[in-house]
Amino acid sequence: MNFCSECGSAVVLRVPAGDHLPRHVCPDCGTIHYQNPKMVVGCIPEWEDKVLLCRRAIEPKYGLWTLPAGFMENGETTLEGAARETWEEAGARIEVGKLYTLYNLPHINQVYFMFRARLLDLDFQPGIESLEARLFSEAEIPWEEIAFRTVRATLEQYFRDRRTGSFDFHFGDIRTR
Ligand SMILES: [Zn+2]
């Protein structure tokens, strides 16, 4: 950040009184511009023994496959965000289930929340951010073309759990891209 979003003055980086980390502070209007991690919400849309993946039509990771997921918007809940992203990216209607994986990505200041979800029908079609949306069985998953570590970890966990039928909540840290 270079300029104050409140008044347009140049900001300085300093530790405010009573704080312990440097922040962008506006010397003119006094606004402290805090920057905090972003939340990414998404889901595993399930249909019988298959899951719905989208092939990205945007950077980063153009052309690679992902579960529907994206940045949470102000004013919505995590469940609403997961359903919205699934609609936007895959044109798919879902019933969102339980929170399934949570990953901290401290190197890029993100936290991923992935839910299980039930696909309500097969009338899905890729949105403008996707080249394709299609169902994959475990044997069909394009493991070498998965866009993100978080998605790969979630899918690996999902297929491991499916063998036992026990889908406990999992969380962990991912520190590389
Ligand atoms: Zn200012």
TrEMBL record:
**Source organism (scientific name):** Thiobacillus sedimenti
Q: Which UniProt keywords apply?
A: Hydrolase
Name the coenzymes or cofactors required: Mg(2+)
Recorded hits in PANTHER family, A to Z, give: NUDIX HYDROLASE 23 (PTHR43222), NUDIX HYDROLASE 23, CHLOROPLASTIC (PTHR43222:SF2)
Entries under SUPFAM superfamilies matching the protein:
Nudix
Tell me what this protein is called. Answer: NUDIX hydrolase
**PROSITE patterns noted in UniProt:** NUDIX (PS51462), NUDIX_BOX (PS00893)
Location of the Nudix hydrolase domain: 36-159
What Enzyme Commission number does this protein have? 3.6.-.-
* Gene Ontology terms, MF aspect: hydrolase activity
A Pfam family that this protein carries is: NUDIX
